[in-house]
Amino acid sequence: MTDISFPTEVVTKSLLRLIRVPGVDRQVALITLDNGFDHKKPNTFGPGGLASLSEAIDAALAAEPAFIAITGKPYVFCVGADLTGVPLLENHAQALELGRLGHRVFARLRDSTIPTFAFINGAAMGGGLELALHCHYRTLSSGAAALALPEVSLGLVPGWGGTQLLPNLIGPANAATVIIQNPLTQNRMLKPKQAAEMGIADLLLEPADFLERSLAWAAGVVGGSITVERPEVDRDSWDGVLYFAKAMLDKRLHGAVPSANRALELIGVAKGASFAEGTALEDQALADLIFSDELRSGLYAFDLVQRRAKKPVGAPSPVHAKDVTKVGVVGAGLMASQLALLFARRLQVPVVMTDLDSDRVEKGVAYVHAEIDKAVGKGRMDAGTAAKVRALVTGSVDRSVFADADFVIEAVFEELSVKKQVWAELEKIVSPDAVLATNTSSLSVTEMAADLEHPERVVGFHFFNPVAVLPLLEIIRGEQTSDAALATAFAVGKQLRKSCVLVKDAPAFVANRVLVRFLSEIQSAIDAGTPLAVADSAIDPLGLPMRPLALLQLVGPAIAYHVTETLHAAFPDRFPLSANLKALADARLPLLVDDEINPEVTALLTVGDAPLSADQVRQKVLDGLAQEIRTLLDDGVVAEAQDVDLCMILGAGWPFHLGGITPYLDRTGTSESVTGRRFLPKGTASLA
């Protein structure tokens, strides 16, 4: 056996209690996972934690209890392996042993002749959920905040039995959703009700008396008064499901995420292989993937999202922030209405929208009410909360309603003169210390505030659409923005549960600037004569969430051209204006029809006679990204390359396996080729 240890490990202790439970004549062994910290530092398993669990199982078995149950500390069951120790593994043999160690310990629960139960009282992810799957029975709290097998998003596979146990419990289609689709869809979590309906848990209970009722239910199962029935898994359709899933993976990722293909192969193995055979292949896959650049990038991205995003670099002290007791929203269109709902729901303060006429205002308020009703219908909001939020959102055509607002945000037409006029009118109405926020996606915050009596209170507050889904909030400091206004903006952003990044006032800021440079390079290749299909598929090896034409269609050619105009005015050499993009904006044609390129679009274009190959297009795009990101950093638009990656992950949905983008540019040599240096130190998000 290869000895492994994680010097950085915060050991999760497995604390055994022998207790009496009515309905059984012997003691019950209850093991509680607890690392000694509150819920902000969840339980994880490294070698030390696995050893502690094994010792607790030894003691539990020796007591010959009526049953063995495992639960977690308050709000947390276990969120899986201790990822901080993974980069410390020195060789393939150690990685292989880590997989085998987890399998050996967890298998003791699966193979036990004494009934075993998992009482999933809180967050259960990765190896934590796999631990529960090894138990014979599972109860689940409806208050569990996060349930998932997220390993594929990081560049790994569930390596402690998940790929073998889950498909045989809930079927290959549902297993592929949990193991592959959800991690690759912004790391989507299962709700407790979903998990129970899938069959991951045998019983869903309310959190208030979860442990007591779980123990009573387990006693009933052991005593024979309760029978647990599980539907038979359809094995006839297994191969067909995997064939379809593989086709979807190839279409979406084009082989760019090795962990996704390995996970799908392992789900296939689970159909007929013995558990020992399947888990041995899991060990091998885990060991192979641990020494991959994709995993290092995934761990880097995970650290950005979990740590850096929660402590924005450069943000002023929150002591400077003012309390916000009322919010004003200028505009009542779709974006403004989404903002009104978000502010009311998260801040729980009055929110008032205004617009040019009563029809627009009424439509905006109606949108908010309809979204609240949808949330209630889907069980995401209770009736009492819905009534309160509904009452908080009002509308008016008279902007004097903003007189007592502490925070006013505009979401009007993206034209500098229009926005300046809005602020000039509002400055006469609002209090002198009210913070004025603009949701501009590309215009100068400094210029917007230039003619105001108090320009220091204007701040950029750039959301990403859809507002309720994308977590990024770029907070832009104008040249005269005060610490108080900035601190208030960050405090509000935190209350809105957004991940905030401090950005210097610069054209199109960060995410949009990088995306527009990306699209501009594609557009210039098309303008030169590259066939649309070649240009559109050239970036497939990166495994981005959508191809360029789909992204352009989502953004809208008109908006893309408008933002390009802003960037062209500032950087004409790097952002040329495309007559073809303007033609697409004017024509308002769908770029794609049933996921295929619209022939009318091809006919509309006027192109040159210097087409590029797919490889040339891809390198042209990567070179452009490297140049633009280096310019952003040299100009101090954000503090470090990590902030660019955070913006691309959270604002554009760029994948963890790229680490956002700069680790990929580094490991392909593009950074040094274009700019003469790397963005990140060697080994930060790659093996070398």
UniProtKB/TrEMBL annotation:
Instruction: List the keywords (alphabetical).
Output: Fatty acid metabolism, Lipid degradation, Lipid metabolism, Lyase, Multifunctional enzyme, NAD, Oxidoreductase
Outline the extent of the 3-hydroxyacyl-CoA dehydrogenase NAD binding domain. Answer: 326-505
Give the catalysed reaction(s), semicolon-separated: a (3S)-3-hydroxyacyl-CoA + NAD(+) = a 3-oxoacyl-CoA + NADH + H(+)
Tell me the superkingdom of the source.
Bacteria
Give start-end of the signal peptide: none
Which pathway does UniProt place it in? Lipid metabolism; fatty acid beta-oxidation
List each copy of the 3-hydroxyacyl-CoA dehydrogenase C-terminal domain by range: 509-586
Q: Which PANTHER family match?
A: TRIFUNCTIONAL ENZYME SUBUNIT ALPHA, TRIFUNCTIONAL ENZYME SUBUNIT ALPHA, MITOCHONDRIAL
Belongs to which family? In the central section; belongs to the 3-hydroxyacyl-CoA dehydrogenase family.
Q: What is this protein called?
A: 3-hydroxyacyl-CoA dehydrogenase/enoyl-CoA hydratase/carnithine racemase
Q: What is the lineage of its organism?
A: Bacteria, Bacillati, Actinomycetota, Actinomycetes, Micromonosporales
